[in-house]
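Hi C.,

You asked whether I'd gotten around to modeling the 772-residue construct. I have! Everything is below, sequence then structure, no commentary in between.
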Amino acid sequence: MAWKKRTGVVLGVVLAVFLALAAIVFYLLRASVFVPVPGEVKLAGLSQPVTVRFDAWGVPHVQAASPRDAWFVQGYLHARERFFQMELSRRAASGRLAELLGEKVVAVDARFRRWGLPEAVGRQRQMLPQEAEKALAAYAAGVNAAILRLPAWRLAPECLLLGCQPEPWQVEDTLGVGLLLQYTLTWAAGEELQRLEELRAFGRDRAVNLWGWSGEQAAAWLPPELPPRPSKAPAEPPPPVFSGVGSNNWAVSPSRSVTGMPLLANDPHVGVANPATWYEIHLQAPGLALAGVSAPGAPGVLIGHNPQVAWGLTMVMLDDQDLFRLTLNEQGTHELFGGRWLPLVMQKQSLKVRGEGQPREVVLKRSIHGPVVREENGQAYALAWTALQARSPVECFLRLASAASVYEGMEAFATCESPAMNLLLADRHGNIAWQVTGRIPKRGKGAGKLPAPGDDPAWAWQGFEPYERNPRVVSPTAGFLATANHDPFAEGDASGEPFPGEFAPPHRVRTIKKALAAQEKWDVEGFLKLQTDVKNPQALELLAALRPFLAELPHPEARELLQWDGEMGGESREALLWANFLRALVRQVGMDEAQDAGLSRSPFTGEVLLRLLAGAVDPRWWDDVTTPAVEGPAEAIRKALEEAAALSRGKTWGQEHQLLFAHALGGVPLLGKLFNVGPVGVGGAAPCLNATAYRGQARDFSVVSLPSMRFVADLQSWDNSRLVLPLGQSGHPLSAHARDQLPLWLAGKAHAMPFTEEALAREAPRTTRFVP
């Protein structure tokens, strides 16, 4: 019995120590929460006192005596609320994540270094104009004031767990954050590699037919020869580390607004993030008045308004990336270009990995076209990407901050070379405007649809189109403008020679235009409701084409789909049935031949299915090549429906379409409950305006991208403008503002954005005065 008593004592001591340590950790975590202190707080580095008023959502309203002090305090506040997010971003952009997170992110570090992000940051620093340099330096000084003022664990609880020691924030770190954001919004190179694999797998004629190219397009866009398929099929191109699917924005003229002034809406769709992608802020100083969302790590406001102009952004989906297949010598040190052997620029770099004594070595290579980003089985590909040679877009956003009209707003981006964005503007003069920003590459041959021959100068980039060629529209007679990552030429929004792009299907923009045209007058509440619309127009279009086949089936699920209204609400059973049916049909039609060719996913999407059902795609795809029989559409549709019915029975869309805000440390045992938020069931899908997207061919319908914020600007009364984040302002899991906006976001609501002194006095009573 004595041993039992001793064991009990030992276990009791262990439990007591564990509980004591847990209590200490919890105390430290709670102590690190940023709570605004009423009264004065000394902050070294300020030039003059700055007043910050916090509203009920933790949004800071900064009143400074100079723009320099406003940027300084913005940097300080970002660091207090989002430092770990900023730390991960700057480490990712510089290829140094593994120093903190270890071996599992080595491939990410190597990828960003091979893509040349750190070198591009250096070039951007050299091209920064003086005013932008001053703003970024002031912001960095504010971040560093927080780093110097507080121990690491007070800045970010993650630093307590990882033992990280923050380095001083540099101007280059902000440039890196901007470049990383551009990377997450661009994936044209991946599309080229996917097409290359399909071309090798299915042959020229079937692939071209699958893509919907005309004979003329195929002749102009296909390279003269393709490399042989490797004996071991390469892995399909990975998507960007953080990827999104698009965004919506629209605006109406005074004639279509109940206020007699323009209204503007924007909801960018990006990957699910925890903490939230954006940080809301309101900045005021002589010559400066801004409100909207900022990117932690950078000064200013990306989407929002000043006293005269409101703006929103979506990605154009312009093809501003091209891969070039290199011809190398036997040693792999020179490339053939124009009949001459040119040396590759080679550089060895050390990559430190947490837990490893010796750094790893990464060899970077640079071609005449750009960095060598892919090498396998004796084949090498170099990347041309506008962002790698472009000026930082930060300077354009700083100019936009002082725009007094849509015309000045458009001109603010004349030097914004990357990324290509749909800049939508509205001003208090009653104008609305759309401007495509960024540089459009000039291509000698091809259209960037497949890796081009790197040895032929005729296929190389020939420079860039002048900014004047970029489409723009001001105050159209229709009284509204809308963009949703669609092809503006195909939809009649732009004229002239089209530019190549990896455009989103037009379903979302057509939904927006149809709604705006159908209603004579709009208000803020109507815009918010439209942003959360969950009708799936792609589903209804496909069901119309499938009706002859579904109507012949005796299955009750066939009737359910044919009677369904297309609403992807979380409580809908039909929405889940549809999602399972579409997934099954896409795989039923194309997966057999894809697997036979060594691919891991079907080449079919909903858009290709529409063309197949219309007779524009080779009907042999309906046949299952793994069986001796020759199947047609009726058999494939029946099998897909039966599979979908079995998977959907007794469930709703929200039960399967789950949203989990996973934190970078959320996968660590015991930490998930502290850092992760959710899961919660939601409605929507990629073709809906409420674009909560999932991976199309996966059996898992978990949300992978979502509206990262919703913004509606009321130019009649800025105080009536609305904004909501999916989580909240703070990155600290124990903060009252870590997830307080989630109920609003789920309900399709948003909070007011107080801008005038009268509204601030009413809605932002908590005041902290920072003094030098």
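If it helps when you're writing up: The domain at 246-317+392-447+455-531 is CATH 3.60.20.10 (Glutamine Phosphoribosylpyrophosphate, subunit 1, domain 1).

Thanks,
B.
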